[in-house]
């Protein structure tokens, strides 16, 4: 099998058969001419399939080592599609600190259809095993979590799930690491989900989501859901993600290089009380990080002591931008308690360990010296 970057640039993207164009064209066509009744070139209507989307899906299946991939209009649309695998009476185990939109969808919409959800600390294998029931059909985890960068051992989680029931699906939201640094399917997961909005697209200019499957039923079910519910990714956005993926490897190496340096800078600075980054030897799961990830990426959380100090620090920054989201080429910095984790409430934040003084940074690929100088001057001003 070819290497990661070669596949990122070529898989699913043969030069165009009619024109030789080396980039997959954006097929802006809702429908396709048919030669006679029942005879067509493989495409009938773009909700069902579209050549640009097909190319991206083939590419993503290859990069994650799955047998199918289906793309949706956003990460949340992909998770919504995933839960249509479930029926009334089924049970789901979900990591206790996954992306906030995920439990909102599960509890406020899907639970209404008679599907039960349990939230557990999946970094604890005993807790994971104890949460599984005879009717558990899906285990959905995120590793590392946001913003505390807690890891779940994917190999161990897959063993626990499959010993309980070989048909149970372990799904991993791989948005934070991207397939370049973490390959959940090779570690035993059954499904991989991404918000392509983040590292895969990489330029903060389009939303999208993907489900990568490993079983024939995943391929059938997710294609059927695209056709039935229509929450598909548009050809233009599919093209943007493909364009982004061509540089995924180079971008991830830079995010990782800058991330390691920024984590070290923050850890050494007296104005910072604590740093969470899986690439620091002081991270409690540093050994696990090295064994299941091939890099540590650009996501770091750190403690500034109070909301007031965090805000003073944030207002001094000039290169880093205060904004939600992550995974783009530009450095984004956010305040989880009032932004990404505002909706879960104070009590849930306290239980998870998300404080008012915590700041999260998505380290971009700007020149490291400029990022370091910006953070230094803002920290020194406190
Ligand atoms: C952003 C994000 C999502 C949701 O994706 P959207 O594209 O915003 O719908 C899901 N999981 C993780 C880890 C995310 O960061």
CATH superfamily of the largest domain: Type I PLP-dependent aspartate aminotransferase-like (Major domain)
Task: Work out the helix count.
Answer: 14
The largest sheet, given as strand count, sense and whether it forms a barrel, is: 7 strands, mixed
The class by helix and strand makeup works out as: alpha/beta
Query: Which fold name corresponds to the CATH topology of the largest domain?
Result: Aspartate Aminotransferase, domain 2
Q: Report helical residue fraction.
A: 25-40%
List ligands, each type once: pyridoxal-5'-phosphate
User: How many separate domains?
Assistant: 2
- CATH class of the largest domain, anyone? Alpha Beta
H/E series, N to C? HHEHEHEHEHEHEEHHHEHEHEEHEH
Widest sheet: strand order? Answer: 1-7-6-5-4-2-3
Percent range for β-strand residues:
5-15%
Please report the total strand number as a whole number: 12
- Specify the overall morphology: globular
**Average of the residue pLDDT scores:** 97
Indicate the radius of gyration in whole angstroms. 21 Å
Distance between the termini: 52 Å
